[in-house]
Design brief:
The chain is an alpha+beta fold. Helices cover 30% and strands 35% of the residues. It has helices spanning 12-17, 23-38, 95-109, 124-132, and strands at residues 2-6, 43-49, 52-65, 75-86, 116-120, 136-139, 142-149. The protein has a 7-stranded mixed sheet, with helices on both faces. The longest helix is centred in the first third of the chain and has 16 residues, at 23-38. It is globular and about 50 Å long. 25% of the residues are buried.
Length: 155
């Protein structure tokens, strides 16, 4: 059974054992995620099963410049899924999708208005993964920025 825990309930030693194969994301989880939470920059959510960290994601508020001429708003509310990582021993088992769907579920349940979930793919392979889940390019000048319109999320 997967538990969803806030970062402050994950012992530092468990965070140190996490290895997604990307040293930048490993370092973020071990060294910087807690700092981002204290500064109010992001919230880190962790999937744990039988005491092992499967993966994590971070969420932050974000404003997206509106492309809709019919709206009176220059910006529309979104949430940035800023970091997403799955431990190497659990990769290619659907954990990444599970993390994204859990993020969508929580954002949709939020008591604030949110229209989009935004991701910044690191490369074309990651972009293709997000597109397979229904994300679409948003900014023509940056094809690695992708959005998911949350009205399309079916719980």
């Amino acid at each position: 059974v997967i538990e969803w825990l806030p970062l402050n309930e994950i012992p530092k030693i468990k965070r140190k054992e996490f290895d997604c194969g990307n040293q930048t994301l490993n370092d973020y989880f071990y060294k910087y995620a807690k700092q981002d939470e204290r500064k109010g920059l992001a919230k880190c959510h962790v999937a744990v099963e039988q005491g092992l960290v499967l993966g994590f994601f971070t969420l932050s508020s974000y404003l997206i410049q509106s492309k809709n001429a019919a709206t009176p708003y220059r910006y529309e509310p979104g949430v940035l899924l800023g970091r997403l990582a799955v431990d190497k021993q659990f990769q290619h088992r659907g954990v990444g999708k599970l993390l994204i769907y859990k993020a969508m579920e929580w954002v949709c349940e939020s008591p604030i208005g949110v229209k989009f979930l935004l991701v910044r793919a690191k490369n074309d392979k990651v972009k293709d993964f997000y597109k397979s889940l229904g994300f679409a390019s948003f900014y023509p000048d940056n094809p690695l920025d992708l959005c998911f319109n949350l009205k399309n999320f079916k719980q």
